[in-house]
Structure formats: C-alpha cells, structure tokens
Amino acid sequence: MVPLRKIIIKTITKTGHEDMWVEIQAHTFRNWVNENLRDCGYQVNDLSTDLCDGVRLVALVSSLQKKRLKYVKRPLNQHQSLENVTTALNAITDDGIKLVNIGSVDIVNGNLKLILGLIWSLIVHYQFGSSKFPPKKMMLAWLKNVLPECSIHNFTSDWNSGIALSALLDYCKPGLFPDWRELDPRESVQNCERAMRLAQKVFNIPMVLEPEYLASPYLDELSGMTYLSYFMKELSPGYFATLRWVQSQVPECNVKNFTTDWNDGLTLCTLVRSFGGPVPGHKNLSRRPEDWETNQEQGVNGGLRLGVEPVLRPVDMADPEVEHLGVMAYAAGFQWLKKKPPPGERLVVNIDTKKARVNQPSNFRLEFIYPEDIDPSLIRVEIIGPNGPVPCDLELGPDGGIGTFIPTDVGMHELIVYNEDEPVKGCPYHIRAAPDRAEKIMFSGLDPCSVGSVVEVSINSNGAADSILQVVAEAPSGRELHCPVDRDGNAFITTFKPDEAGQWSIAIYYDDEHIQGSPFSCVVYDPHAVKLSGLEGAVPQESFTFTCDAIAAGIGEVRFDVVHRGKSIPHQKIEIKPGIYRVTFVPPELGKYRIYTYFNGSEVKGSPFKMMVTPDGKPVPENQKKNSRRDKSPEKLEKKTSYSPLNASFREEGKENRFNSIDRINKRPPGSPEINGHEDFSHLQIAQSPRGVSSIQNFELLKSVKEVNRVNKALISNRDETDAVHSRIVSRRDVNVEERGPNLAAVSVRDVNVEGRGLDLAAMGQTSSFTVESQDIRADDLTVVINGPKGTTIKPRVFDGPKSHSVTVEFSTTHIGEYIIDVLLLGQPLPNSPFRCFAYNSQEIRVGNIPDGVVGEPVEFEIDGSSAGSGNLEILVNGGHVTSSVSSLGGQKFLASFVPHQASLHTIEMKFNDDPVPGSPWTIMVVEQSVTPGKRPSVIGDGVRHIPARRQAAVQLALASYQTVSDVKATVLGPNKRTVPHNLVNLYNGTCEVEFTPTEVGAYVVDAAIGSMKVYGCPMIAKAYDASLIRVSEVTSGRVGQVCQFRVDAGSAGEGQLEISINDGEVPNQVQVLGGGRCLVSFTPDHPRLHTIDIKFNGETVPGCPFKCKILDTSRVSVSLKSLELIPLGEPAQFNISVDSNSNAELAVAVRGPTTDPPVRVTGNTQNGLVAEFTPSEVGPHTVTVELNGISVPGTPAVCKAYDSRKVVVSQVPRGIIGKQVQFTVDAGGCGEGNLEITISARGRNVPTQVQPQGSAKFIVSFVPLEAVDHVVSITFNKEPVPGSPFTCTISNDPGRVTATGRALTAASILRTSTFQLTNISGSVDDIEVNIEGVPRNL
C-alpha cells in the first residue's frame, strides 16, 4: 500500500496589500483621466471627491466621445450633481458601454472602488477599442509576438525590471534602445524611469504610471494594461512598427491599417504565402464579401502550418467592425518566422508524356526541390477522369517519388498534386487517355492490322528448297500480290503491305500445295478512312449532333472524346446503320472544342477535329479573327528609365549588336523538314491463331518505343506427314502514325502570340522562359528545338501555362552566346520562328576598385565585360541623380566615371540585363575639396565588407590631426539588433580601429561619431560569414565524358562569394542556382585521373577541401550479356568480359538476385578475356553489375531473368470424343518470364487450338478432335519441355455417329486400290453414298 501524502494547495490573494494596489490603480486612473481632460481646462486630484458634482465626469465623457453634453456647470445642490452624473452615465450607456452595479448616487457619494470600475470601463472602450473580445488576451498576444525574447505572460511582474519596456521601445523604433539586453534587472526603478522618460520624449506617451509603481511587486494588472495600451492602440508607435513590417513583407497589398484592409483575407493569405505557408487556390481568391470568411480560413490554416496560432476566428477577422488589436497581434506572430518557399514551389511534377492508354499504367515523377521542407505524408494526388476520380498509387522517397494511375475511361484526365493542400506549381496537368489497343474486336485468323502496315510471315523450312515455296496475298477486291520470299536461317521470311481495307487471304504453297492451315485470313482496317461531318452550327447549352462515317474503314470499333478547356464533355454514340454513327453532346459554353476520334485504338487522320461553338451557330468570319502576334519596335525592346544610366552594349566579336537586331529575319533554316503531324506509338501485343500452336510471350503487353511501320509477325511451321509435331508462333508489333489536319495547324499559327524574355535574353545557369498563347492550345501541340553555340542542343520543358490557352516553355543555357529557338505548332513554324536568344552571365562582369571621391573631381573605375556575353549594362549613381559616362578601352573593357556635386555617401548600382553584377551596390565617401579624407574623421576602406564569424574584426578610422581615440564614441549592433562588445584601439598616424568579434552570421552595423559629428562612411556594414557552415554533398566517382554533379549548400554560411575550381581551373564547371543559398555544380571530365575540387567562400577554403573525385575510363572494359536475357534455374550462366590489358584497375563483378545474391566465379585473364559464371537459385530478375574501380562499366547494371520450366503445372488431359471440345489448364505463374508453346497434333498433323488467358499466367487450352486417334499434346517453356510433356489424349468414337478411318483418307497411291473403313453404321450398305473427286487428267 502506498501511503497518502499530504498536499498543500496555496492561493494568493491581495489581502494585506489591498491598500497598495488600490493606491497604484487610483493613481494610474487619475493620470489617465487628466490626460483626457487636458484640453478641457479641468484636472482631477482625487477620484473619490472631484467627480462627485458630475462636472468633470461630463467633461471627460464629452472629450472621449468628441461631442458636447448639456450639464449644470456650477451645481448648487446634490440634485444638480445627480443630474450631471446621470447625464454622463446615460451618454456612456448610449455609446454601448454596459455598466453593472453602479449608479449616480455611488459617484456622488464618492465610492472609490465603483468609480475605479467606471473609469476602467471607459479605458477599455475608448483606449483599447470597442471589441467583443477581452483586451487582456489581445494585448498579451501582441506583446508575446513582438517581444519573443522577453517571455511576456502578464502585465505585472514581467514588467517590474524595466527590461521588457526597454525592449518594447527598441521594437517600436529599432536602434532606440539597442542595449536593453545588458540592463541589470536589480536596477528596476532606474530602468523603468529611463525607459518611460524615453517613451515620453520620443513617442509622447504620457507617464500615467509612475516608474516606482511599474517597478513595484504590487503593481496591479489594470494599471499595467493602461500604460502599455499607449504602445498598441490605433496609430500608436507599436501599431506603426507592426504595420511597417507588414508593408515590407507584402508591398503589393498596399496595407494601411489592421481593420478594413484585412477583411477580405487576401492580405493574410499573401502574408502566409510570403513565408511559404500553404494557401490552396491563392491565385483565384475572391474579393466578394460572401467569400471573405473562406479566404480567412485559408490564411489561418496556412498560418497554423507555419506554427502561428490565430488570435481571432476567421469569421471575426472578416467582420467589417473588427477591432485592430486582434488582427495586429496575429500579424505580429509572423515576424520572427524563417521564410521558406510556398508548398506548391517546393517540388516539381515531371510528366514524360501527356498521352496515356486505357487500362495501361501511366507514370509521373515528383522531384523535391526542398526536401527538408517537405513532409511526404502531406502530399496527395488528385486525378479526375471523365467519369470521376481515378485512384493513384504514390511511392515517395526522401528526394521525390513516382505516381502511377491506370485510366479506365477514354478522355481527358486532370492531374493535380497537392503539397499541404496547395497545388504544386504547374498544376493542373491534362493527360489524354486513348482507347486501349487490346480493346479491338477479336477476329479469326491473323490479328487485324491497318492499311499501310507491313505484315511479315516467317515459315519454318525444315530443309525445303527455296524455289518450291510461294506466298500469295489476295486482296478483298480479288487482286493478288505475289510476295517475295527470303531465306533466314532455317526459315523463310515473306512480307506484304495491305493497301485496302477488308479481309485478305494469305496462301502459302509448298510444291504447289497449300501447307497445313493455308490460306490464312487477315482482316485489314483503315483508320484514316473515318470521316466526320456536320461540325458546324453548335450553340451553347443546346444538344448538338454530328455524323461519323466509318464504312470505308473496315471492321472495328470507333471511339470519340469531345474536349473543351482540358475537360472531356459527356456524349452519346449511336450506330444508326453499320459503319455510320451519330454523336450527340451538349456544349456548355462558347469556344473551341476538340473531337478526338479513334478507330481500333488508333487516332484517325485529322484528329482532333476542331469545331467552334458560337452564339448563333454560325462560323466566325475570317475578317474577325485577330492575329495576336504584336509587332515589336525598337522602342518596345529597349528598357525605358526615368534616369540617365550608362547603356554599354557588350557583344561577342564578329556578331551584330544584340540590341540592334530588331530587323533580324527569323526564318526556318534551309533544309529543315516540315512536320505535318506527329506519331503515336502503339504496343506489342500477343496474337493468337485458331489453328496449330498459340504462343504467349511474357504473359503481358509490351510497349513499342520505336517509330517504325506497323509489323505483324507470324511464325508458321509446316512439316511432313511423318513428323510428330507441327508448331506455329504468332506475334505482332503495331505502330500507328497519327496525323493532324493541315487546316488546323494553319489556323492556329495565324492566331498565335509568342512573348517572354526568354526569346531575347537568357541568364546562363538560370531558368529562362517564354509563353505561347492561342485559343485552345495545349503543350503537346508544340515542338520546340533549341540549338546553342558549339553545337549544343538544349531540351526545353514544355507545359501548360497558369493561364488558360497558354503554354510555357522553360530552358536553361549552358554556354554564353547565341541560341536559335525553333517553335512549331502542329508541325508548322510560328511567325518569326526561329527566334534568336542571347545567353549572358552577369557574374562575369568584373568591376575594378572604386575609390572615394572629392566634390567636383571625377571618380573613375574600370569595367571588364569581355566574358559576360551580349547585353545591356546600367550604372546608377545615387539612384540616377548623378550623371555618369563611359568610354571604351577596347576588348569589351570600359572606363566609367562620374563627378559628385555634394559631400555625402554615394551609392553605385550596376546591373547587366537587369541582373545585379557581383559586388553591387558599392558605397564610397565623397568629401568637400577643402577637407580631404586625411583631415576629417572617416572610415578607411569599403563601406560594406565581409568578415569571418567568431574571429576578431576591425574597422579602421582616420582621425583629424587634433582628434584622439578618446573623442570617438562607437557602437556595434549585431544581426538581432543587440549591442556587440567592442574596443577602441589607438594605432598610429592619427588612426584608430573599432575591434569586435562577431559571434553569429549576419550583418553588423558599425557606427562612430565624434561629439555630434558622424564619422564619414558610417554607419558601416560588416557582413559576417562562416565558411565552416557550408555543406558539400558526397562527391562520387565518375566516368570520362559523363556529367558529374554535386551540391553546395551555403544557406547558413552568410553572404559572400563562392568560388569553385576543379583541377586548378583546368576543368570548366557550371553552377545552377537552386535557391536558398544552394547550388548544383556540374562538370564533364575529359581524362581518367583523380580530380580535385577546391571551394572557397569569400576567399576562405571550405572545410573538407580539396574534395576528391575519381574519374575512370570505363570504355576499356566491355561486357557481353546478350545471351543472358533468359536463363534457366539451377544451370550455370556465363558472360564474357574484355579488359584493356595495358592498364591497372580493380574489376568487381556482382549479381543481385530477388532475395539472395548468387556467388560469381571469374576465370581467365586480361589477355584472353575473362569469363564470369553464376548459377541462379531462384526465379526472377537478377541484376548483373560490373564495376571498374567502383564505377559501373557501360552496359551494366543489366537485368537477366531466371526461369524454371519445371514449375509449369498442367492439369490432367482428359479423354475425348470426336466432335466434342476437350479442355485442360496450364499454370505458368511460378516459372518466371518466357515463351510458352502449346502444340496438339494427331497423326502428325496440327490440330487447331484455342488458348484463353485467365490472368496470373494461367491459361485454358481447348481443341475439338476430328479423329478417333490418340492426340499428342506437347508443351514447352522457353523451348524446354515442361514436366510430363508430351501428354497423350485418347479420343474415341461417338457411339451415335458414323466415322471414317483409314490411310486412304489422307494419301493414296495411283493405279493401286486404296481402302478406308466406316463404323457405327445403323442401316444397310445400300444406304451409304460415297463420292470421291480427283484431279482431272490433262489431255
């Protein structure tokens, strides 16, 4: 048993010190009353007596309400006093203030506690604001958010030391009280007095509370709230401090208050977005009052994700009568957050193709740009198909992942990826799902194919001579095509190309006789024969019907997809007679519609067909179609400025000036092909024949990836009568060429608008872009080819833009120079294509030392732009108020100069193509001619400099001859506005220095003055950095000629210059800025040797340097793995390795199995070659890797597929009866991948066989026997007999059926008697009639 402990609960009351807190409160409230009576000529000395006659109370209420009240100015009796007090109280209640338990008599009688309660009600309403929320909560929320270091929890003890009040002053005006952290809390009264007097002097805040009372442990809460309310009421110092901060974060919102400017929620959502918080649909937020609360909810939820707790409810913030304090307190909660990109910009969606197939997986990739700011559990994918949501499987890792979905309906699918409920940039993506080619109608004979495809037939020769094999293809019209026959090993190969739709007959003759199963039928269809008509006359919201004629297309299925604004429109298809269809749909609105049309899964010629929906159903006249391509004049190309900057054009030698090329001719290069359409790739598919052997390859559909003509392959084997088995393998590969109508392309080209900076200028290593706008345009309609200098080709990223009817093209340049951009719409070049874009690198602008100056004398400095490329250089001195000039020094180098006209700090800004050049802006000191820098106190050196953190830094000052170090007063403020300890050290020749040690990364402000005169050059900015905080990702080994990459993260290291050198600068490298101080470094090694990577930050070597990167030439090793595509289980598998014997290297060979890794044995030598051998012990893929000194050689890793034919399970083959179907099953689910071959024969002749897939590599095999003889069933897997093969199926006669048997039924000798037998005859011989027809003799 646990003994009970005695628990003592203590409560703290004001008993014993009640007189103290009442005194403090009465004093504070009296001072507050007097502040509001100052303009009335009245003063209150004692609240309990001076308010009794009601005169001062009426004056107070009149002052607060800004209106005059009638009252008795000199009351002579209690009745008149009561009348005055009643007038005041009525005015108070009429203004919405609820008074409880207080009446006129209480005030006339001088009840101090009730009077204090009345005054507090006035303070709350008129000082804090008329809010329905407790002011204490609002005030504490704001104070906690603006003073996070002070840990404010109350209005009493937390303010006794005076430190929190001093910090509040520094918040209201940064730099006003910079040393508040160094105050001694034991000197509380002095601290309070100093802070309160400074607040009175700077902000005119009255001292309604005495410093001794603020420092008192008996300070009552209401007194503290009353004084502090002066810092946060409307138009107060704290109000403006928070407002200035909000304005700096969201300048686009033009925020001027904390009430009406916040009602619609847009300001809050913009503020949340600026810190990287999620705001779903932020671009489409509505300003309608009925949507304000929804907007506020979006912003509040985004703030919660950032860690900012709301002060008010969304409905309260949307209230037009909202009081400022709650909104201001909430906004202040964002002040100390670290900014990060919005959720929708922390990752990108990569889609390889905008096309998919029904019932086939479609993939897209997610790449995390800022993986440290992404929670994979908050990523979701939404795919909306024509008939609703489509499931999506998302697999995510630390750096991204893959999404997979399977379209089940033909039509447009909208893909939206959300991160923290915010759509990822670029979404939604639209993916068009075409019909699955597996949905084609089943035919007998060879699988159907399209007109223009090539049918290839392979016939097993079995030693037959070439001259006695003939192949004839007969067209539906009766026309015969004699097909050429070629020898291919032990087989004959023949091909034919059908040119008309219908059923073809392929006859194969051996010695002038049909082989078994000949002739073979092949149904041919023509998708390009499908025609659409009646596409005019559609109006919105009314049923519209058009007609499709597919009669000439042959046998097959026609499918439609009506698309408008990226969405599929529901439609109904009715076949009114064979091959003629009526399609009906209701267009929801005006605009352009696309009708995608498919036949047997292939898109027909002219698809998508375009139709316009107009108000009256009439076509749009040509003269009303606008060409939105705007002419560009030189005036539009040049950037207009209100100042007179230096415009120096840099260009490559031998090339025209980039900015004078407005009259350039943009035409297609000679010889470039015109593209009238684009190709759509179909898939390799299992074909089955009703005769002989069916072949199942890999048990699944395989996709074709080559642009070739459609090929149907059939392997048909024929043997002599004496052969026991006849086999035939049928497979096919289809590729369909999709065409777009030429009229469609022509119309779209005229209506196109291309614009964007990326058409003219591109910053090297950064993403450049331009947009293509036209009604109903999609990304897959465009072809963009970008060719750069030195024969480089850039692959752009083309995707649907944020605006409807627009496509965005993004690309990154790798070299300085001219790039040719070809843009084609549906194969047709756009107006003015190709475009000429010039890549530049503003980081290559080199600026010489800019010296301090003297009024009236030129300040000169040199600029080297020889390596920067073409562009426009702008120089601004003091924002353009000081004129500058430039002269050429040759070799793309220039001398810039300006003449200052007044003594002050001068700022020089420099931009190249609107990008800041390294080091900009510069600050120099300009002094009067009579006062040189050596005769007046000034900063020695640059006004802005970089200093290493945690090391002593010094700023030197030059003093006048009559000044000493004791005259100098200096301050150093750190990044958090804290005062940094420093020392003043006297040097020599009239100089001194300010020494301090920066303890953290950030900007330090060094200010110095002598008396009331500031030192020239002050305040000086010293930016502390820490190279040890730079993180470099692992630098892995690489190959010659292959790009090597690594990442550098300098986000926490501070500001500075990052220098990267590989092999002392011998190997060029490219740096791509990723944002947040991170970059991706790439280089391509040319020689196999150890590469050293040196990284410096502000000239300081980064820890870990130099980094080593081993580069190998793996071309010295070659591996032959062709024979290992399929390998049997339990048998040794070998492959050859050739190695250059003249080099020393470490070669590693490994094989990774599905669950266990088999051992590998390597024999041989480098002179004669190496042989690697391993034995797979389990079914499944085995990955073979060959590494040279840790680097994979070309061709590896490669995947080999192990199989086990012994695991094929065949059910019992039952006995059969003539004319009735025999059926059994084959289960190949556990044997791996491969080819399953099934052959059934009787008397050496193949029997037609049907194979029906059941899924999971299980099949039902059936045949109908025609003879009462044993049938032989042979089953092989990858040419290996399965267990029990061949099987015997006994076939018997049907007792009720006459049967004929005997050799003479199949072969007979001439001039000899041949016989056969008839059995199961129920009647007499006279009832039997036998007819024998022979070949007539040629006379």
From TrEMBL:
Gene Ontology biological process: actin cytoskeleton organization
Cross-referenced InterPro entries: Actinin_actin-bd_CS, CH_dom, CH_dom_sf, Filamin, Filamin/ABP280_repeat-like, Filamin/ABP280_rpt, Ig-like_fold, Ig_E-set
Residue ranges, annotated region (Disordered): 610-678
Filamin repeat residue intervals: 354-433, 445-524, 534-613, 744-839, 849-926, 929-1024, 1022-1111, 1109-1202, 1213-1291
SUPFAM superfamilies recorded: Calponin-homology domain, CH-domain (SSF47576), E set domains (SSF81296)
Residue ranges of every copy of the Calponin-homology (CH) domain listed in the record: 23-127, 133-236
GO molecular function, one term: actin filament binding
UniProt xrefs under Gene3D superfamilies: Calponin-like domain (1.10.418.10), Immunoglobulins (2.60.40.10)
PROSITE patterns in the cross-refs: ACTININ_1 (PS00019), CH (PS50021), FILAMIN_REPEAT (PS50194)
Compositional bias (Basic and acidic residues): 630-641
Key word Metal-binding present: no
Pfam families: CH, Filamin
Keywords: Actin-binding, Repeat
Keyword Repeat belongs to the record: yes
Family to which this protein belongs: Belongs to the filamin family.
Protein name: Calponin-homology (CH) domain-containing protein
Organism of this sequence: Artemia franciscana
